[in-house]
């Protein structure tokens, strides 16, 4: 590790250390079959609800899931799941936005 950091410094790339660490963590997770899911809800999920949701995602994906949780009251209700660049919006706000677009297009 020391040699790696010295090499980055010698090449003038020490500013990339955080990005390299994130990519390394992503590669390790991919190798271990783990996915990271960001769960955003309108209200705080209880630990039991969060475990149940993570279990459902694991069963559907066939992979181990590491989840981070956040709260966004603007969602009104429901959940938004983000896995990498894929986003599943099952929130009330998302549904209302889709309905608005359909009405505008009609």
In whole angstroms, the N-to-C terminal distance is 60 Å
Give the low-pLDDT segments: none
- What is the H-and-E element order? HHEHEEEH
How would you write the strand order of the largest sheet?
2-1-3-4
In total, the number of strands is 4
| Portion in helices | 40-55%
Helix count? 4
Main β-sheet, in a few words?
4 strands, mixed
Write structural notes for this entry.
There is one protein chain. This protein is α+β, with helices and mostly antiparallel strands and 106 residues long. The chain folds into two domains: 1-32, no CATH class; 35-106, no CATH class. 51% of the residues lie in helices and 26% in strands. The protein has four helices and four strands. The chain has a four-stranded mixed β-sheet with strand order 2-1-3-4. Strand 3 (78-83) and strand 4 (86-91) form a beta hairpin. The longest helix has 16 residues, at 17-32. It is elongated, with a radius of gyration of 19 Å. The chain starts with a helix and ends with a helix. The model has no long low-confidence stretch (mean pLDDT 92).
List strands and helices in order, with pairings.
Layout: H1 2-10, H2 17-32, E1 34-41, H3 47-61, E2 64-71, E3 78-83, E4 86-91, H4 92-105
Parallel strand pairs: 1-2
Antiparallel strand pairs: 1-3, 3-4
